[in-house]
Amino acid sequence: MRLSRYFLPVLKENPAEAQIVSHRYMLRAGMIKQQQAGIYSWLPLGFKVLKRIEQIVHEEQIRAGHIPLLMPTLQPADLWRESGRYDAYGEEMLRITDRHKREMLYGPTNEEMITDIFRSHVESYKSLPLTLYHIQWKFRDEVRPRFGVMRGREFLMKDGYNFDVDKPSALHAYNRHMVSYLRTYERMGLQAIPMRADSGPIGGDDTHEFLVLASTGESEVFYDSAITDLKFGDRTVDYDNWDECADIVKEWTTPYARTDETHDPALFEAIPEARRKTSRGIEVGQVFYFGTKYSEPMKAFVVNDKGERVPVHMGSHGIGVSRLLGAIIEASHDEKGIIWPEGVTPFHCGIVNLKQGDPAADAASAALEAALIAKGLDPLYDDRDERAGAKFATMDLIGLPWRITVGPRGLAAGKVELTSRRTGISEEMSPDDAVAKVVGIYAGL
Ligand code: P5A
Fold first, then answer.
1. Which pairing describes strands 74-76 and 103-106: parallel, antiparallel, or unpaired?
2. Residue stretches of the chain with pLDDT short of 50
3. What is the pLDDT of residue 445?
4. 112 lines ligand 1 (CB under 6 A)
5. Using H for helix, E for strand and C for coil, what is the string for 78-105?
6. 293 lines ligand 1 (CB under 6 A)
7. What's residue 203's pLDDT?
8. Test site for ligand 1: of 50, 195, 286, most ligand atoms within 8 A of the Cβ
């Protein structure tokens, strides 16, 4: 992409309404535009990151054996009356009436609708286990939408629902989701710590939230610092192996880590003092096991291997896809702007031409752009007729992890400069070597 032809409405000033750094940078980098409180348009740069995050979520869900589908945003009120949640959900639910006076709602979550799909088509335990998920917009009329996409009213969520014949199988589904989430967040360059939590309006006793440590997080968290040393890494997991998934979950849930909702001071005090940490955290996902809370009232039964009709055991599992943009920026930025982890960056590499109009610099920049594209990468070439300082400031603000700087002086010696946004370290090398290095960095992702 050539920056001169792109739509990147960068703001020079800090927007007064933004209280936290991720919100400020998302507005300044032209990623989002607020349309109403908690409702945003996703401008091209923000939309690109949103799609990258969605892609990682899809890949990891499919790897775990979960099946994508798509349910509508609008749901009939009657389904929610069956589960008893239509009244219980309260003012957070946006209720709508159509021209025929039929009551509808904009879905804040989809337990009822997925249970309806399940009961219409599945009758036997032989069709289980089954996990269906989608990535779809949700609406929750939050009392205090704030911090940009972090607490929106309209927001994008991945929500998955497992159906199992009994509790042990459903607990495996719970573990399988936890493992897939650990891998998902790590691919986005995030450390998200599973913490025992409260289930709220979704229900059930077993639930963990995944929290990214950040001073601007909305939850207070207490943890054993040993948990921050854990890495998922590139281990391969057999998601059908109950013991393997349970062992990974045990590894991550043994060190103490809880939010203020479930904090137990006595257990916390038992950790050696040097490892006892208190911080704040951003909730980027949550897993639930709630058994037959929806299947019983909604009559989602299956016939088990003894020929009995039993209510199916369920859980639901959410990832805050749009919130993740804010969480990643909170975890990865400096005073100049965003620093995207390679896994989610909107463009793989920036190309800054220091002297637009100089035939050698123009040709070398275009050749770099073509070479990167030929290798399957997506570069952003700043071909505007701007001062070098302004070009660097834009690149630093939008946070591309790698930048190749092209100028007549370097080119005379056959060199360009490759700079890491994270370390600020620059290296001179030939254009071919710069391309090879950038290609190598992304090869394993
Ligand atoms: C699990 C999936 C549920 O709704 N039902 C389907 C369950 N869980 S949850 O914890 O309530 O939400 C899942 C994740 O969505 C994100 N989230 C939000 N993101 C932005 N703005 C909001 N107002 C908002 N509310 C929830 C969180 O990341 C949460 O973990």
1. antiparallel
2. none
3. 82
4. no
5. HHHHHHCHHHHCHHHCEEEECCCCCEEE
6. no
7. 76
8. 286
For ligand 1, atom 10: residue with the closest CA: 286
Q: Which residues contact 435 (CB under 8 A, 6 or more apart)?
A: 368, 371, 372, 375
In short, whether 207's Cβ falls inside 6 Å of ligand 1 is no
The CB of 323 under 6 Å from ligand 1? The reply is: yes
**Residue 429: predicted pLDDT:** 98
Phi, psi of 228 (to 5 degrees): -75, -10
Structural domains of the chain in order of their starting residue, each with its CATH number: 3-338 (3.30.930.10), 349-443 (3.40.50.800)
Place of tokens 């939408």: 145
* CA distances in angstroms from 84 to 97, 158, 201, 212, listed in the order given: 19, 24, 11, 33
> Which residue's CA lies nearest to atom 2 of ligand 1?
318
**Protein residue with its CA nearest to atom 8 in ligand 1:** 318
d(CA 393, CA 406): 16
CA 376–ligand 1 middle distance (angstroms): 34
Q: Is the CB of 109 under 6 A from ligand 1?
A: yes
Read off the pTM: 0.97
pLDDT at 353: 98
